[in-house]
């Protein structure tokens, strides 16, 4: 046990992975995640087929169904594994800086082909993708929880009034970005992101709605 | 000619329509629009088939292809005919009132099943619906042109600074509404719309970006 490598060390060599208990399971898992992401990048979510993922990963289709259930389960697992480790936005010292940082982070994510394909095809809720709603709820809830810290910091700094609602403000700043990119099909250039940040800065100072 | 009814009177009775030159053409057109909208409401855009529209309208499929070309042409025609007559938002006397009026108008549109189906399925730009981009560009351009008057009036009233960019502000107010409804799957209640209006009111006062 003393000579055992730390659990988080990666073993690119298959034999090394197989030598450990759980090595094959972990290897199959990684191969399936890679194959899922490659398929998402190529054909998107709607056209993704579990048997194409299985063929690409070199595993039996039944292995995938047994472990992850359905296409939704498979994509959820890939999404959580590769995008689940959300890092709180860096503290730039000002709300304006933090807002621009957040917008640039979202833009960076949307430059990853499989993330963009997933957002375009599976992000909007349609009758056809109702099986994804639960995953989407978890995704946005996790994302908002981590990103909301920006507005909490701004309240602490005295830049925003107490009682500010981070969830509402995250909708106000994320909404136009997705609308611009997804619905209008326009580029997310720096100038646009900065104008959005300034707009949000002023809008947020409206504060919570007056009681009554 | 003196006894001719005004052009805008509708003839629900087929014989009356057939008695006029162009009567059959107009009747087929109305039947095809009705059938397109009924199919959109039932199956959405992605699953809509031209032969199902033809069968429902009681016309030959080739008639539709000859007159409107493709599925995109057909849906464009239905959209322009039934949603193309955009009316400028009513002047409530204040920017806040106008913003709430605009948001409620958009919400009302999204309560129409075929409009909602079209926005959910065909609004977001994917690789699969690239044939719709031109239609979407025309749709948003027309919509923004008509709705932008809200911000022009606010500048005239002195509520917003000169140089205000109506297109940018329309993105800022429409974006969160579509994000909330389409991506988060949440209801558009009055409270949310009013908070959005207050946020936009303050955000818009940030004015155009400083030169340099």
UniProtKB/TrEMBL annotation, chains A, B:
The cross-references to InterPro entries, in alphabetical order and at most eight, read: Homeodomain-like_sf, HTH-type_TetR-like_transc_reg, HTH_TetR, Tet_transcr_reg_TetR-rel_C_sf, TetR_C
Q: Which Gene3D superfamilies match?
A: Homeodomain-like, Tetracycline Repressor, domain 2
Looking at the Swiss-Prot or TrEMBL record, what is one Pfam family this protein matches?
A: TetR_C_11
Q: Which UniProt keywords apply?
A: DNA-binding, Transcription, Transcription regulation
One molecular function GO term is: transcription cis-regulatory region binding
Name of protein: TetR family transcriptional regulator
